[in-house]
Amino acid sequence: MTKADTRKSVAAELKQAAEAYVEAHGRFATNGAAAAPKWLKERRDQAISRFAEVGFPSTRLEEWRFTDVKAIARTSFALAGEADLGGLEATVSAHVVGAPDQHVAVFVNGRFTPSLSRLGQLPSGVLAGSLGDALSRDTERVQGLLGHLAPEEANPFTALNTAFVHDGAFLYVPEDTKLERPVHFLFLSVPVSDVPLVIHPRNLMVVDRGAQATVLETYATHGEGVFWTNAVTEVSVGENATLDAYRIQRESEDAFHTAATHSRQERSSNYSFITFSLGGGLTRHDIKVVLDGEGADATLDGLSMLRGRQHTDHHTTLEHAKPNCTSWEYFNGVFDDRARGVFNGRIIVRPGAQKTDSKQTNNSLLLSPSARADSQPQLEIYADDVRCTHGATLGPIDDDHMFYLQSRGLTAKEAEALLTYGFGSEILNAVKSAPLRQALDRLVRRWLAEA
Amino acid sequence: MLEVKNLRAGIEGVEILKGLDLTVKPGEVHAIMGPNGSGKSTFAQVLAGHPAYEVTGGTITFEGKDVLEMAADERARAGMFLAFQYPIAIRGITNAYFLQSAVNAVRKERGLEELDTLDFAETLEKKLELIGWDDSLIHRAVNDGFSGGEKKRNEILQLAVLEPKLAILDETDSGLDIDAVKAVADAVNTLRSADRSFVIVTHYERILNYIAPDHVHVLAGGKIVMSGDMKLALELEAKGYDWITEGAAVAT
Hints:
The complex is a heterodimer. Helix content of chain A is 26%, strand content 36%. By secondary structure, chain A is of the alpha/beta class. In chain B, the strands form two sheets. In chain B, strands 6-7-8-3-9-10 form a six-stranded mixed β-sheet, sandwiched between helices. Chain B is globular.
């Protein structure tokens, strides 16, 4: 076979791999999901058609150049069912980091699990828990948002998620309501040894006009085996509202993780999203923030710390749709062994979005000669009175930095650990909640100690 | 305390130090002056153990130990300290945390218990009080976004906290206005003691007016070509370096 033939056959294979999901969707639609409202069934059907049409993305596509999902396409995943909850309590408490009084909603294999959750007393009007419940109780509100912020055209995996929408995190904070305690959505995947499993958690978070909330999403593994999490999170931040959102990924090296987080902000809103990628075999996360009202402010930070053969790819888009908005993006990555990081940072300034002020930074630290990182800024600016800057650093620890620290008495190993900690610390310092920051700090130190 | 004999060293195959001799006794302050390119900074870097410099001849002993057999961090833990001409910024690490790590590296070596954050904060406070500085630098990331003067002051703060036996100041005065030079000199004077020695590398005599060194040496062409006391520094200020360096090949 020529090279061109090989490429063609891989492309055909990736498209064909979608067929198994079409069949699975057929079974899904007639079984447990049959009771769904008509609009949802239609949306799912539309989404599976879209996925069947595009299939798994190939590395020939610019957006997927550095992340090869063939391993996902070639694995035969079964839709995860209910898991044995035995022994999960310890895992839950190990992952419920941060404020001791937070509201906790636990999802096991993508399903809301009340027996492990601790939602406690929520302020009047606040809804927090399961999207599955919201689909039946609050269907109109969900209908108006689900799939509107994260359209299925965005990415084949988003379409696949929509095709299997069933359950996930749901948060609604009504107008002028301040949610004092953070809400923690914990997704535990429980693999089984013989069958690779997949879940499609679908999360929806709405913080209405003038409301304030802090949320945390954690993705973690309990046990061993191949598992694929294909998550989509849609976030709506209303006028003058404030949302501080955090995401922690601590999955096993056998985990595949594809995710999309799409947010839309209205006038004078504040949204901060800080994501920690601290474990997972193959991860691709698309993050899109649309600043869709004047005076909105967005912060988008990330820290990846990977070793072994782990791979993580962050594709971010900050879209300035209205004037006078500010955005700040800061992604640091530390890659050891044969780990690999990809960062693609797109900033779009729509026509008329004058006085946009946007700053993007991406730093990658390579701790081993076999580690690799790729960084790509993409600025698309259609307005003339804006300030957009970007900067990137990439490489091993600088000799002069090492010498400086060693000249103060630190051994080479201590100096390397301190400089690496500094990389992590830059992102940790942006975490507003002190208990959460301390918990993440411990995770970063533990990662360093494992070297 | 420090004994440098016939030291020859260079970088990337170019010899810069061509037989340098220097003896520093406990409590002494030595100034090493010299024109640009005379090898002043190379000498400071070689003393601290910068791996890019190659020592091709001679010896350095510190308290009887063969310094050339020691890595940079071992020299530091043995009590040698270099105040950098161009201090390095370390993002994400506060000065306080950095200093705590450095102090604990030394304590660990000496078999002492490491200081926790609270204990160390107390130590740091006392040191700041001693040199009469406020705590404005300690919670900022190491040298990150610091002005030139702040960076130099930060080197002296590290000196104060790490309490070395021998401190080498590499052009700490360069680029500072007169008030900053005075502040640095005052701190150095406070830190002087009978068992702590200083080697002050400088282009100008300005800082020496406040520090009053015991010995002044002129480095030219990679060697000490003249030694004297403060009068020599004043003479250099009045007449420049040419009258000394004429005849001595200036290293580049």
